[in-house]
Amino acid sequence: MSFLKFPEILPSVAFRRLALIGLMLGSAAAALAEEAKVWEVPMGGNAYVTKQVGADTVQSIYFRVDRPADLEISLKAKVPTGESKIRATLNGKPVEKKLKGGEGSEVALGRVTMKEAGYVRVDLQGVSEKEGVFAEVESVKVLSKDPVELNYVKDNEESRFYWGRRGPSVHLGYSLPKGEPVEYFYNEVTVPEGSDPIGSYFMSNGFGEGYFGMQVNGEKERRILFSVWSPFSTNNPKEIPDDQKIALLKKGEGVHGGEFGGEGSGGQSYWLYPWKAGETYRFLNRVKPDGTGSTDYTAWFYLPEKKEWKLIASFKRPKTDKHLTGAHSFLENFADRQGYLTRGALYGNQWARDVKGKWHEVTEARFTGDDIAQRKYRMDYAGGVKGKEFFMKNGGFFADNVKLGSQFKRESTASKKPKVDFGKLEGY
Fold first, then answer.
1. CB atoms closer than 10 angstroms to residue 313
2. pLDDT for the residue 18
3. 131-188 pLDDT per residue, tens
4. Which of 135, 188, 286, 417 is the most buried (most CB within 10 A)?
5. Residue 178 contacts by C-beta under 8 Å, 6 or more apart in sequence?
6. What is the torsional sign of CA 53, 6, 197, 300?
7. C-alpha radius of gyration, the chain, whole number
């Protein structure tokens, strides 16, 4: 039995072939094509295996329309030899097609009527085959007479199929107090139950030179992660000159310390910890110049079961002389095959402590997105305020969308000012 190969993305051994060849569009459809606008949604950046159980494997392709519209859906595909039958489901409505081997062609699947803006889902599933191949799909073709615009991952320049399949990353940039330099930043994060699929990174305390938060790395593995970028720009940590390497000063018990690359390079630390959805976790980090042209970065995570702060790590960054800047949180998915699932978190009770020891409440934030979001290749992202907390969510192809660049202000939590005994912090 053969399996489908997504161009440049998925290994062929993982998935059943589901692309199609069939009847050419009839004369009526051809006439429509002359008048309609036509889009081709490539499988490479827009398709996922959403169910994988033997012959019941389902591959789903997603694209978004920006307004109500009638859409004619077909497939650009081929079957090398033999005969097969496949099932296509358009926004929940199934249709079966019999296919015969031959040259690549188009297979008309039917019409989708969208009553409002949102995502269209096309599911493909094999029903029967004689030569080991259901079919090989290149793209989903969409035709419409309505003045609609489609959003989908359109090209693979700079590996956008990969980044698009991961989904849009979104950020909250916090407004720090003016005046004295900021030395500490405090934040609390709550991930609602069911909003934590594998591949999620709920980054709590970001700063100009790194980030600190919690991840879902597997069915049974979760991490608290703290990283600091090197001032030397490279994706390969082995290229960093000795005088620009991040130095690990200290790490907490059981914490792994090392390097990272791929998205810049630098020092990385993580601690395996089974944090739970539905609970609120506290993060505290410090940025302090050492007086010799370098800066020390330290991160602590509060253990609710022990009611104490745990040191994650402390790093020294050379060629840096500054206090904390660029306070932010972000939400991302680092597992591209999980990009069709929704994740989200609440971010609340933000505080900044200046070099004179005064705490300042942080209640304002600006919502932004990555390249995939800015290009509108993916529109399944949102952010805002829920009472005393900010929120972000992404992935899953939900219809609601929040404009990038939006400014938010949460309700005050002045009565919840952090109570930290700094003298008892390990690594202080």
1. 27
2. 35
3. 677 778 889 999 999 999 999 999 999 999 999 999 999 999 999 999 999 999 999 9
4. 135
5. none
6. positive
7. 25
pLDDT at residue 371 above 70? Answer: yes
List for the chain the helix, strand, coil content (%; round to 5).
Answer: 10, 50, 40
Give the mean model confidence (pLDDT) for residues 398-416: 97
Answer whether 183's CB lies under 8 Å from 354's CB: yes
- Among 33-47, 215-229, 369-383, 406-420, the range scoring the smallest mean pLDDT is 33-47
In whole angstroms, what is the distance from residue 334 CA to residue 163 CA? 9
Tell me the pTM.
Answer: 0.89
A 10 A CB-CB count for 428 gives 14
pLDDT digits (tens, 9 = 90+) for 320-367: 999 999 999 999 999 999 999 999 999 999 999 999 999 999 999 999
Closest CA to 416 of 363, 365, 329, 350: 350
pLDDT at 405 over 60: yes
pLDDT, residue 44, reads 93
Matching residue, tokens 């296509």 = 88
DSSP class of 245 = P
**Strand (E) or helix (H) holding 171:** strand 170-174
The Cα–Cα gap between 66 and 130 comes to: 41
Architecture of domain 12-152: Sandwich (2.60)
Whether 380 contacts 166, CB under 8 Å: no
Q: Amino acid identity of 10?
A: L
**Tokens coding 384:** 């805002």
Q: What is the mean pLDDT of residues 86-111?
A: 84
- The whole-angstrom separation of Cα 155 and Cα 153 is 6
CA dihedral 46, 52, 57, 61 (to 10 degrees): -10
Domain ranges of the chain: 12-152, 165-424
